[in-house]
Amino acid sequence: MLPEFKVAQLRHFVWVAELKGFHLAAEKAHRTQPAISLSIRDLESKLGEALFEKRNSRTAKTELTPFGRAFLPRAKELLSHHDRIAEDMALLAEHKTGHLRLASVPSIASRFLPGLLLDFIGDSELHVSVFDDNSRAVLKMVENQQVDFGIASLFDDQDQSEKRYIPVWEDKLGVVCLKEHPLAVSQELHWRELKPYRLIRNGTSSLLKGSAAESLLAHSQYYISNMISLVAMLEAGFGITTLPWYAFPEGNTRLTFIPLHAPVITRQVGIIQLNNKSLTPPAQALVDFILASRQG
């Protein structure tokens, strides 16, 4: 049966060998000299060979046996491997290293995540991968365990028993169009006022389902999923669209956002994760950080 080494015993052995004395090793270990001697004897018993030459006097330096000299580099290698793993796990537990993967709807990915991640990561060596897509795609990535967690909306009442959903952000739906568009003079809009104009559907248009404005979707022959392409079409004057406030392109000087007052449609965006899977320490730390930031 192979011997099972204790890390403390290996460390004591290395210190005695390097410092050439039990007394100095005991001081370094903050232990008594008899305790270090006992530790070494137990290690020698496991190995079946002596590690140190017998000493003739208390003042003589401790010397390794040939077996001890052969064992010393291996003991150091074991300790180095142990310490490296221990350090890696400590850093992982403190979310300072590792690889964090999350998926988010573009509105939150562009408006909130940059600042949140900058504050969260700091000077750590944590690797982060962010995938932005519509809510259904984010849900699918969570289900397939392609990401640690997702940030998205739940549009329907389908069974979400396998997932945990924590609402975090809330915004209202409005109409986006050119500042020169006839609708742009309004402070707020009724859905019927949109009927004469070309409506471009997008990934958030599902919010209209079940509302008084749902009929607008049936009369829209255009759908654009990518936000960059959608903004380009709007800026070209191709039509109008509906978007939640957080999805409105911040800083855009050519488009305007007009709230819908009839119907008032509110979107919730939150954190989605699998119920039966624990998050990695960095992922859990980021979830806690996001929730604390929103509450603050």
UniProtKB/TrEMBL annotation:
Q: Where is the HTH lysR-type domain?
A: 5-62
Q: Which PROSITE patterns match?
A: HTH_LYSR
Query: Which cellular component terms (GO) are annotated to the entry?
Result: cytosol
Entry keywords, A to Z: DNA-binding, Transcription, Transcription regulation
Supply one GO molecular-function term. Answer: DNA-binding transcription factor activity
Database matches in PANTHER family: HTH-TYPE TRANSCRIPTIONAL REGULATOR YBHD (PTHR30419)
Please report the name of this protein according to its UniProt entry.
Answer: LysR family transcriptional regulator
What family does the Swiss-Prot or TrEMBL record give for this protein? Answer: Belongs to the LysR transcriptional regulatory family.
